[in-house]
Amino acid sequence: MRPDSGRSRAVLILLVLASVTIITLDARHDTSGSPVDPLRSAVGSVLGPVEDGASTALHPLTSIPDHFGNVDALRHDNAALQTRIDTLTTRLRAEQANNQRNVELNRIGQFAAVQDYDVVPAQVIAMGPAQSFSRTVTIDAGRQQGVVPDLTVINGEGLVGRVIAANATTATVLLIVDRDSTVGGRLSRSMELGFLTGDGSLSGTGALELSLVDHSVSPHVGDEVVSWGSHNHAPYLPGVPIGKVVSVHSSPADLTQTAQIRPYVDFSSLDVVGVVVRAGQAAATNLAGGVSR
């Protein structure tokens, strides 16, 4: 037998006897008078701060379940708020669009009042080629509302085009920017007459070209151009604003000058338009948004 083995056994027996003695002494006295109180207090004073420090150090770990619970709640609240924001944004955009349509309708109505004509309001519902023309739009008003071919179409900015076909509830409008469209126009300052043709573009850089009847007359940059008009005012009324001269160029071979016209109408964002009819010929209908026709 090894000597250190006997020594270890003796130490263990002494520790067991000491533990039993302390337990016996502590059990035979009440808490306030226990002989081991000083020892308990000493151990508490040493281990207490250690326990508090350990509790503080471990707090981030023990609070992890609560942290994840709070994150889930915040995510739920954020999702609800985002849904609310999206709903309000959509409502605001719709209201802004309706307000803009009402502004356009008021401007169209003012023009019709000056010209002593009625206007059938309509909304552009499609854009694309029709028949042999490439720049046309479809509107949601037709023969039931008094819309027939060869009527002038305007919006709040000026001349849009003319009706080329109509069925019961819709009509096709040829835009003045179509390459095959020709519109009679005149310079509002000098009253000189000419013809306008489109370049086929619907973008902001789209333009019309004006060729004057009198080749000796020179248009000027800044001159405004209005519609010349047609026989019995079909398809174009006289005096409808078309655009403004932005440049003038000449052809030495033909000894003529032509002017580039920037149209007032933004053809890439057409929405509400008005079909001009003679007073009393418009049928009462209803435009989306509660505006009466």
Structure description:
Strand 4 and strand 5 form a beta hairpin. With 293 residues, this protein is α+β, with helices and mostly antiparallel strands. 25% of the residues are buried. The chain contains three helices and 14 strands. The model is unreliable at 284-293 (pLDDT under 50). The strands form three sheets. It has a six-stranded antiparallel β-barrel with strand order 1-2-5-4-3-12. The protein has a six-stranded antiparallel β-barrel with strand order 6-7-8-11-10-9. The protein has helices at 3-27, 37-62, 64-115, and strands spanning 117-130, 133-139, 152-154, 159-166, 171-175, 182-187, 193-198, 208-212, 224-227, 241-251, 256-263, 272-278, 286-287, 291-292. Helix content is 35%, strand content 30%. The chain has two domains: 3-62, no CATH class; 118-287, Thrombin, subunit H.
